[in-house]
């Protein structure tokens, strides 16, 4: 038995190709949902659209502080893994669900495979950085989305367990993009916004809204529930609604997200996943955090990272935005593999006797 633990929107998107690749080879699998994301449009929609079977168990650990959530997932998961002990536990990305999975499995001596291992922001104030470091060091096998991630792991002495498979999100993107009917529509700027660093203060959120106001063109923003709540809490909701070029919508399913990306000339985001997907979809990326992440895209001048609270940095971002145009497929960056990451993972797991 192979068990996957997932709990967040990006993890459902990463799970789909690997689940299907393992199912094709006849492996018995079990999905555990931590419950970290729980709204219909943050969770169920992805299982339906990406044809992933409903999880066997939901640990209902959404909400609360980092410690409360991580602890709740750990307690529920331990019970599950003791009742149904798998040969391997597969973890995805860098969230509290990932961290909880790594610690529980390691203590039960269950081998862990980490999908999207190796990115490093080199900033321990960034919660995802802490989750990744712990998870990578507790994993038996590490699947890297790009060469920089492998290099990071080698520097930490983990090179022997690590393989560059390419980014599994590219597998998912291609599986949906190939079937999406794309009508000729006006180009837009797509925005997503949810990171702790960008929602933790009124000043920071106001600066981001001010950047949006200064962008030229219509900005479509499927808004994460966390950000909606923080805007309301800081009394900024009305201000956001009044921004003439900003259209706030509910979070969308992945098919609709691909449609939006594929008509974007620019993506304004703080999402780790979407910033990389921008290169799949042909839209340049303005990244609203100055963190080390996907630096090959920065070198290509595909992605521009900025600090919304620093005027000089914002000026650079606005200039980048004015020049951003859609890029045709042959000229898009190719740092994240060939869209067959899941198959490569299955092969490596088999070679290492882990499945
Ligand atoms: C989490 C991850 C982050 C990842 C993001 C993907 C951690 C520490 N953070 O951040 O790395 O980039 O998921 O989206 O694991 N909420 C709802 N409905 C939902 C989900 C969340 O209302 O379905 C609200 C709740 O008020 C919740 C808040 O959003 O307390 C934050 O959710 P949480 O899962 O803690 O963090 P994210 O910002 O989603
Ligand atoms: N996404 C989506 N619907 C939305 C917003 C994002 O399907 O309304 C997708 C996006 O294309 C990417 C993933 O969700 O594949 C990114 O998730 P998120 O930004 O929540 O997390 P992060 O990548 O920062 O961990």
What does this 3D model show about the protein?
The protein is α/β, with parallel strands linked by helices and 355 residues long. The protein has helices spanning 9-24, 44-49, 66-83, 96-107, 127-138, 147-155, 168-177, 196-199, 202-214, 225-233, 237-242, 254-262, 272-281, 295-299, 311-323, 341-351; strands at 2-6, 29-33, 57-58, 88-92, 112-115, 141-144, 162-164, 188-192, 219-222, 246-249, 264-269, 284-287, 303-305. α6 links the parallel β6 and β7. The chain contains 16 helices and 13 strands. The chain has a seven-stranded parallel β-sheet, sandwiched between helices. The chain is globular. It folds into two domains: 2-167 and 337-351, Glycogen Phosphorylase B (Rossmann fold, 3-Layer(aba) Sandwich), CATH 3.40.50; 184-331, Glycogen Phosphorylase B (Rossmann fold, 3-Layer(aba) Sandwich), CATH 3.40.50. α1 (9-24) packs across α7 (168-177), α3 (66-83) crosses α4 and α4 (96-107) packs parallel to α5 (127-138). The longest helix has 18 residues, at 66-83. Uridine-diphosphate-N-acetylglucosamine is lined by residues 8-10, 36-39, 42, 62-63, 94-96, 127-128, 194, 225-226, 229. Residues 9-10, 13, 169, 192, 194, 222, 251-252, 254, 257, 271-274, 277 line the site of uridine-5'-diphosphate.
């Amino acid at each position: 038995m192979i068990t996957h633990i997932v709990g967040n929107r990006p993890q459902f998107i990463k799970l789909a190709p690997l689940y299907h690749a393992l199912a094709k080879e006849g492996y018995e699998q079990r999905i555990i949902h931590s419950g970290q994301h729980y709204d219909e449009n943050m969770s169920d929609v992805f299982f339906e659209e990406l044809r992933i079977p409903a999880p066997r168990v939901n640990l209902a650990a959404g909400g609360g502080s980092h410690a409360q959530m991580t602890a709740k997932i750990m307690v529920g998961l331990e019970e599950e893994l003791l009742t149904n002990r798998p040969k391997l536990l597969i973890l995805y990305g860098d969230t509290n669900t990932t961290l909880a999975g790594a610690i529980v499995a390691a203590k039960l001596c269950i081998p862990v495979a980490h999908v999207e291992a190796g990115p490093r922001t080199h900033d321990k104030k960034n919660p995802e950085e802490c989750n990744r470091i712990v998870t990578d060091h507790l994993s038996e096998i590490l699947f890297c989305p790009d060469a920089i991630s492998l290099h990071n792991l080698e520097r930490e002495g983990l090179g022997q367990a690590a393989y560059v498979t390419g980014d599994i999100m590219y597998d998912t993107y291609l599986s949906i993009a190939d079937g999406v009917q794309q009508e000729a529509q006006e180009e837009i700027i797509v925005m997503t916004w949810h990171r702790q660093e960008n929602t933790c203060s009124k000043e920071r959120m106001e600066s981001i809204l001010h950047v949006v106001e200064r962008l030229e063109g219509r900005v479509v923003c499927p808004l994460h529930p966390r950000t909606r709540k923080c805007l309301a809490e800081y009394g900024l909701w009305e201000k956001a609604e009044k921004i003439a070029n900003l259209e706030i919508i509910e979070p969308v399913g992945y098919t609709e997200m691909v449609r939006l990306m594929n008509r974007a000339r620019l993506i304004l985001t703080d999402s780790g996943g979407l910033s990389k997907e921008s290169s799949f979809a042909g839209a340049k990326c303005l990244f609203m955090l100055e963190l080390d992440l996907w630096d090959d895209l920065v070198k290509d001048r595909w992605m521009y990272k900025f600090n919304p609270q620093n005027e000089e940095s914002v000026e650079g971002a606005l200039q980048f935005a004015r020049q951003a145009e859609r890029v045709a497929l042959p000229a898009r960056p190719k740092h994240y593999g060939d869209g067959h990451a899941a198959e490569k993972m299955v092969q490596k797991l088999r070679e290492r006797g882990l499945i």
